[in-house]
């Protein structure tokens, strides 16, 4: 059990590290956010499995995660269509 906790904390921290290092590239930021959400989901799933197989909340969490991913991808597509790439340096924040 301790190895699972260590691996999940390692996953979460590596996702945060990638998120902070690749802050200029929107697609890599979205991928690292999804990786962080995946580590949180695995933590939640392991925790709920010890509570007696109540997995309803994990399905709600997955639903909100999918909605968050779709919103991020739609923002990415609109930025690529309007500016041509997804680097934060190429467009102004004061539209």
Which helices and strands, and how do they pair?
Elements: H1 2-21, H2 26-49, H3 56-83
Helix content: over 70%
Low-confidence stretches: none
Q: From the coordinates shown, what is the CATH architecture?
A: Orthogonal Bundle
What is the number of E strands?
0
Give the distance, in angstroms, between the N- and C-terminal Cα atoms: 50 Å
Helical run tally: 3
Percent strand: under 5%
Largest sheet data: none
Q: Helix- and strand-based class?
A: mainly alpha
Let me know the average pLDDT: 85
- Radius of gyration over C-alpha positions, nearest whole angstrom: 16 Å
CATH T-level topology: Helix Hairpins
Tally the structural domains. Answer: 1
| Secondary-structure element string | HHH
Shape: elongated
Instruction: Specify the CATH class.
Output: Mainly Alpha
EC number: 7.1.1.2
Keywords: Electron transport, Membrane, Mitochondrion, Mitochondrion inner membrane, NAD, Respiratory chain, Translocase, Transmembrane, Transmembrane helix, Transport, Ubiquinone
Subcellular location: Mitochondrion inner membrane; Mitochondrion membrane
Family: Belongs to the complex I subunit 4L family.
